[in-house]
Amino acid sequence: MNNNQHYTGSKLLVILLAATLASFLTPFYTSMVNIAIPAIGESFTVPAETLAMLSTVYLISSVIFLVPAARIADIFGLRKVFVGGLCTSAFASFVAPFSISIGMLLACQAVAGIGFACVISNAIALLSIVYPPSRRGAAIGIAVAGVYLGLTAGPLIGGALTSVFGWSSIYLFVLLLCLITAIMVRLSISTELFTTPDQPFDLRGSVLYGVVVLFLMLGLINLPDPFAVAGLIFGIILLVLFIRFETKIQYPVFPVRLFAENQVFARANITTMINYGATFAVSFFMSLYLQVIGTLTPMEAGVVMIAMPVIQMIFSPIAGRLSDKIGGRVLMVAGLFVTGIGMALFGFIGTEYNQTAIILNLTVVGFGIALFGAPNTNLVLGSVDFRDNGSANSILATMRQMGMVISMAVATCCVMLFTSTEAELGINASGLVSAMHLTFALGAILSFLGAFLGWTAVPKKE
Question: Is the peptide bond before 224 cis (omega within 30 degrees of 0)?
């Protein structure tokens, strides 16, 4: 089924804008909520552990529903699920400001995670359906740039809205953006888009997948707690059972066969998890480093940290267009290699604050990630049949989210290893730097390993 023949000119542009805005929304929402956490804490008077659950609940619910949402879209219609996800997130954003307890706000975060899972899993798939292969990489590059724009704008706009109007205003702002995006999709796509409308939905596999993800993510997030280790082991056992179950049914929610039969798909997805596993903790450590050792204010630290997403935003569309011409492998491998160099350079950042060196390192890492992102996505989607685009994109998104969790789990373990639980980070600055060095050294090793896997992910002739 070829859907792109129905969309040309202005409609393609509107679809691209809608997909880019959708890609912008998810990191924008997350980073705005993170910046508003102190203000939320003052409103509900709850401990830091409870406030940390705001991000955790959202992350877990979104990952659990990523793969099923894509499969539902394949069967019942991509436009329907995409717009439904936007409306679900809009509803959660509408209710959140009226929360009378932290529990109610956590529930809104969980519902928003479900809604945005429907958006994340289908935004790029939407472009892959309506855009011809010769223009797909460029379109994906622009949409990926929207992700980095969201990361850049979230703290700045979120901080301004929270300071002037209070934390509830960030949810109302997201509500407005969700509704605008939904209207754009409804107006630009006149007919429903299907890839496998006649296939049944794998409900049992979806439930088992959700349980597996729940145990794996809770285990990783809470390491090295003994109960977390036990949960992680149980999650791995369930994962093996899930894989065996999915290989035995005709229409699985998670097409394991793509990993078994398609080396390009398998290794490109693994490199995605590696890339995010290596780099996601950069923002976490830089936020602490700039404020603890650099003695910058949160706003000043945010201005320094935008160096990385700005570079990503600028070069992602360029990398996407290049991937249409020269293929994704070279750019993906180059991106991982450059990222590894940037992560290794952080080893020279010590307890003496050097802002120029930090900005340079953030720029190098950002450039590497930009070279990797769009070409990698284009490579994954181009390696599968049209009917598997939705599932392939959702699996890729799941790999990104799992990489984020792995990165933060490693960072947390390193901080606990080098930083005394009885001392403030400001007092134990050397411990913070040691934890950062070890985390980034592991990130550099992972990036170079990913570059090797990426190079062997496709035949020599693309």
Answer: yes
In DSSP notation, 371-415 reads HHHHHHHHHHHHTS-GGGHHHHHHHHHHHHHHHHHHHHHHHHHHH
User: Which residue bears the tokens 């702002």?
Assistant: 173
The Cα–Cα gap between 321 and 138 comes to 4
CA distance 178 to 200: 30
Cβ burial, residue 461 (10 Å; 0-12/13-18/19+): exposed
- CA dist., res. 104 & res. 97, Å (int): 10
User: Nearest 10 degrees: CA dihedral of 80, 82, 87, 92?
Assistant: 140
Q: Enter the tokens of residue 408.
A: 């933060």
Residue range 81-111, pLDDT digits in tens:
999 999 999 999 999 999 999 999 999 999 9
The closest of 393, 413, 341, 355 to 144, measured between CA atoms, is: 393
Helices (H) and strands (E) in the chain, counts: 17, 0
Neighbours of 412 (CB within 10 A): 19
- Name the residue with tokens 């990523």: 66
- Which tokens go with 4? 């792109």
Amino acid identity of 405?
V
HSE at residue 423, side-chain half, CA atoms within 13 A, is: 14
pLDDT tens-digit map of 210-245:
999 899 888 877 777 888 889 999 999 999 999 999
Query: What does pTM read for this prediction?
Result: 0.77
Structure token pair of residue 207: 């439930």
